[in-house]
User: Which sequence fits this backbone?
């Protein structure tokens, strides 16, 4: 599990987490043959900071992609 609390912006522990599908343009090459990628979305209820964490499957696909480059 990702470390989601406290919020890096306001240090609040009032955060909520959900998992949702990823629009294909947001994480190109992250999906598998039949499966769409997902990400965990974390929202701070105090300041509104919203963070997106790619699923482990999406990360594996991105690692194999020639379109993503190390920074």
Assistant:
């Amino acid at each position: 599990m990702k470390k989601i609390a406290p919020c890096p912006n306001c240090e609040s522990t009032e955060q909520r987490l959900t998992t949702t599908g990823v629009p294909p343009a947001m994480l190109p090459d992250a999906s598998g043959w039949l499966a769409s990628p997902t990400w965990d979305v974390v929202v701070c209820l105090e300041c509104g900071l919203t963070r997106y964490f790619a699923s482990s499957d999406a990360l594996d696909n991105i690692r194999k992609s020639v379109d993503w480059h190390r920074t």
